[in-house]
Design brief:
Layout lengths: L1 H45 L13 H5 L5 E2 L2 E2 H16 L4 H25 L4 H19 L10
Antiparallel strand pairs: 1-2
Helix pairs in contact: 1-3, 1-5, 3-4, 3-5, 4-5
């Protein structure tokens, strides 16, 4: 009998450890998104030298100074920053409506970004990195972390 309890306890400990590491990865990705968003926001307001190529198809300057760098007067970098700050709270929330709406906001943001890249015939590495982070975070939300905040095995 004691052996079964010990084995069960070990399994629970392993499961808890897995859950913690997957949630930690989720939070690290969101934090990385915050850092990228802050960098892009600073670049938007300061127009300083970007750490990114400025010629050819990869041209952050073209993207970040285009008409698509703002949405109804709000810099898209600020909207991105808000998305990454709120994401850990909204996407692990038990309310499916909140989770759905925040996911939809992320998907619309990525679609907007890809549309801008296509129309401008230019790509921003930093913006693309943020787009990839959004997609990975959303995938983790729906395929790794359960709505209750628990992790799928």
């Amino acid at each position: 009998m004691r052996h079964k309890k010990t084995t069960s306890r070990r399994k629970n400990t392993k499961a808890a450890s897995k859950m913690k590491s997957k949630k930690t990865a989720f939070y690290i990705l969101a934090a990385l998104g915050v850092v990228i968003s802050i960098y892009l926001t600073i670049e938007h307001y300061n127009n300083s030298i970007l750490v990114c190529p400025t010629s050819g198809i990869v041209n952050c300057s073209t993207v970040l100074t285009s008409v698509y760098s703002s949405f109804y007067g709000v810099p898209t970098a600020v909207l991105l920053l808000i998305w990454f700050i709120v994401a850990p709270f909204a996407l692990i929330h038990r309310n499916d409506n909140i989770k759905f709406l925040w996911s939809l906001a992320g998907i619309v943001g990525v679609a907007y970004s890809l549309t801008a890249f296509t129309l401008l015939d230019a790509i921003c590495i930093w913006c693309s990195s943020a787009d990839i982070l959004i997609i990975v975070i959303l995938a983790m939300t729906y395929f790794v972390i359960k709505p209750s905040g628990k992790v799928h095995k």
